[in-house]
Design brief:
The chain is α/β, with parallel strands linked by helices and 378 residues long. It has 2 domains: 3-9 and 256-377, Aspartate Aminotransferase, domain 1; 15-253, Aspartate Aminotransferase, domain 2, CATH 3.40.640.10. 39% of the residues lie in helices and 16% in strands. It contains 11 helices and 15 strands. The protein has helices at residues 15-26, 37-57, 71-83, 100-111, 129-135, 158-168, 188-191, 240-278, 309-318, 338-342, 364-377, and strands spanning 3-4, 65-68, 91-95, 115-119, 140-144, 172-176, 195-199, 210-214, 282-285, 295-300, 321-322, 324-325, 329-330, 333-334, 353-357. The strands form 4 sheets. The protein has a 7-stranded mixed sheet with strand order 2-8-7-6-5-3-4, with helices on both faces. A 4-stranded antiparallel sheet has the order 9-10-15-12, covered by helices on one side. Strands 1-11 form a two-stranded parallel sheet. The longest helix has 39 residues, at 240-278. The structure holds pyridoxal-5'-phosphate. Pyridoxal-5'-phosphate binds at residues 70-72, 75, 99, 101, 146, 150, 176, 178-179, 199, 210.
């Protein structure tokens, strides 16, 4: 028995993706920059993937897409690529519930003298647009707000936040949309974001490819200098098998995005109601309604300090059920989740977060079994 409920961490590549990757690895493995036939074929395949991503995001041109190794690199490229336009430290705004792929680069800048505002969130993990309005300064050069929060599932009102940023400042707007893209429609033209990060392995591509959307006309400095690939914004031979699988995963996601989001939302709500009725110690975290369709997260409000999120993850794993815990581990010691702390939970509660995340294979039967195992241990 094995039940995988950790698709916010990574997803199993689609069979069509594996088939295509196998073909690339065996037949079309050329370097897209080479001038001969192998290179030409590889370049055509690479550009097709760029079109597919551009299409999924409704970008005005495939030229807006820079391929990266994944979400972390796309986030780092956005933060350092924009802020390195300035000789002197300026002001940057993020939320207090960013993924570490944003929080850590911004912390690095803070140590270098940049002024950083981390917007507070409410108990559901949501930023208040008024707080953003009040935080904007004349020297704010970048606002970066996560779209769908990975640990608690809350979806931020990105369109509204972009509107405020544009109305009250000259700052650029970036969103880490790694948990959103491929799961719910994301339209960069409608949102009017300047930059947006995505990662293929979160929606059934193989690992090793992501992308940064960059609106035309914005000056971005590369992290890597070298052969000038990706319009000189990301030097290094493109990882063709990963990128091609990202492109195919994007076009397959696009075909079923509305119906699959609906199916997952129904499954998620069924799961949340059932688990809360069977496991009285659980408390939902994140926004119940403005929430990623594949995501359900909780705090185990059990009086015993021994019952932590990590312990429950290990217990369920021993039963063949894969989920994840919010808190990180440092030198073998569990640390409270900074996301739950930012949402106003206590240190003890912030050690007790768990996350279930679903994919295209998840069924009600899987969920019922996971709940049964959990209820037996709580
Ligand atoms: C919101 C968010 N941003 C960034 C990342 C990092 O993406 P990657 O694993 O592709 O580097 C993740 C991965 O979990 C994520 O959930």
């Amino acid at each position: 028995m094995s039940i995988y409920l950790d698709s916010s961490a990574t997803t199993a590549p689609r069979p069509e993706v594996i088939e295509l990757v196998t073909k690339i690895l065996t037949e079309d493995w050329g370097n897209p920059s080479s001038l001969h036939g192998w290179g030409e074929r590889a370049a055509v395949i690479l550009e097709k993937a760029r079109w597919q991503i551009s299409d999924l995001l409704n970008a005005s041109s495939p030229d807006n897409i820079i391929f990266t190794s994944g979400g972390t690199e796309a986030d780092n490229l956005a933060i350092f690529g924009i802020t390195s336009n300035y000789n002197d430290p300026q002001h940057i705004i993020i939320s207090s519930v960013e993924h570490s792929a944003i929080e850590r680069p911004v912390y690095f800048l803070e140590k270098k003298g940049w002024q950083v505002t981390r917007l507070p969130v409410n108990r559901e993990g949501k930023v208040n647009p008024e707080d953003l309005k009040n935080a904007l300064q004349t020297n704010t050069v970048l606002v970066s707000i996560i779209y769908g929060q990975s640990e608690v599932g809350t979806i931020q009102p990105i369109k509204k936040l972009v509107e405020i940023t544009k109305n009250y400042s000259k700052a650029l707007f970036h969103s880490d949309a790694v948990q959103m893209v491929g799961r719910l429609p994301v339209d960069v033209e409608d949102l009017e974001v300047d930059l947006l990060s995505l990662s293929g392995h979160k929606f059934y591509s193989i690992q090793g490819a992501g992308a940064l959307y960059l609106r035309k006309g914005i000056s971005l400095n590369p992290l890597f200098h070298g052969g000038g690939q990706e319009n000189s914004l990301r030097s290094g031979t493109q990882a063709l098998p990963s990128i091609v699988s990202l492109g195919l995963a994007a076009s397959l996601a696009q075909k079923e995005i509305e119906s699959e989001a609906l199916r997952l939302t129904e499954l998620r709500d069924y799961f949340i109601d059932l688990i809360l009725s069977q496991c009285p110690y659980l408390m939902l975290t994140g926004d119940k309604y403005s929430r990623l369709p594949h995501h359900a997260s909780f705090i185990i409000n059990h009086p015993s300090p021994d019952i932590t999120g990590r312990k429950i993850v290990r217990y369920l794993s021993s039963q063949g059920v894969a989920i994840s815990a919010g808190s990180a581990c440092n030198s073998g010691k569990s640390l409270p989740s900074p996301i739950l702390l930012a949402m106003g939970y206590s240190e003890t509660e912030a050690l007790k977060g768990i996350r279930f995340s679903f994919d295209r294979h998840t069924t009600k039967e899987d969920l019922k079994l996971a709940i049964l195992y959990l209820s037996q241990n709580l």
